[in-house]
Amino acid sequence: MCYTHIGGDKIQQTETKMAIPWIDPTASRSLAVLVESVIAPLLMKHPTPVCLDLEIDPALSVPSEPLATVELIRALTRQALEEMGDGGDLTVTACETVDGIELEMADTGVDSEYRSQRIPLMAASVGASLTWQNCPQGGVAVTVRFPRRDQVMRKAA
After folding, report:
1. Residue 106 and residue 98: Cα distance in Å, rounded?
2. Residue of 70, 58, 56, 144 whose CA lies nearest to 78
3. Which of 10, 21, 25, 136 is close enough to 37 for a disulfide, judged by CB 3.0 to 4.6 Å?
4. Which of 23, 84, 25 is nearest to 52 (CA)?
5. Could you give the C-alpha distances from 88 to 22, 49, 61, 68, 78, in angstroms and in order?
6. Are 54 and 34 in contact (CB under 8 A)?
7. How far apart (Å, rounded) are the C-alpha atoms in residues 111 and 107?
8. Could you write out the DSSP letters of every residue in 68-133?
9. d(C-alpha 64, C-alpha 53), whole Å
10. pLDDT by residue (tens digit) across 57-72?
11. Collapsed DSSP state (helix, strand, coil) of residue 60
12. pLDDT tens digits, residue range 71-104?
C-alpha cells in the first residue's frame, strides 16, 4: 500500500476526513494493526510518496506496553522519513523468536554512516535493544528486539 500526500485542495479534504483517527493504536492487541495505525498517518503527511510494505502476522501480539510501543514506532518512523526526502520504500517486518519479538524497519534513505542513530527513550522503558545496519539495496534497517514479557517482569522485580 502506498500513501501519498497530494498538494492543493486535496490536502484539506484529506485532513478533514482524517481528523478523527480510524483506530486508536494503543487499543490494539495485534502488532500489525498497531504498526499500521501508527505509520499510516505519518506517511500521509510526508511531502513525497513512500510505499509501505508491512509483513507482520496479524496474530502476533503487541510485545510491550502499548503506549510505549506506539511512541517507539512513531519515533523510528519519523527518523526513517527524515532520510527519505525524495520518497522511497519503508518495509516493516516482525517475527517471534525464543527471546521475544524482533521488529525490523528498513528504509531506502541514506546509509547508516550518514545519519543519526537516535535511540528513543521508550526503547529503554520496555527493555528493547536496537541495532542498525545498511541494507544491500541502500538505506538502513533498524532491528528492535523486544524481550519476552516475563523477562521484563523479572528484571523489574
Report:
1. 22
2. 70
3. 25
4. 84
5. 25, 7, 28, 27, 14
6. no
7. 10
8. HHHHHHHHHHHHHHHT-TT-EEEEEEEEEETTEEEEEEEESS--GGGS-----HHHHHTT-EEEEE
9. 23
10. 999 999 999 999 999 9
11. coil
12. 999 999 999 999 998 999 999 999 999 999 999 9
Sheet with 129-134, strands from edge to edge, namely: 2-3, 50-55, 88-97, 100-107, 140-147, 129-134
Residue appearing with cell numbers 554512516 = 113
Q: Cell digits for 136?
A: 544491500
> Can you tell me the distance from the alpha carbon of 31 to that of 8, in angstroms, rounded to the nearest whole number?
34
Question: Residue 15 — left, alpha, or beta (φ > 0 → left; ψ -120 to 50 → alpha)?
Answer: alpha
Angle (nearest 5°) at CA 57 between 68 and 51: 80
Q: What whole-number distance in Å separates Cα of residue 132 and Cα of residue 112?
A: 7
Residue labelled with grid coordinates 519519523: 78
- Which three cell numbers, joined as nine digits, stand for 150? 516475563
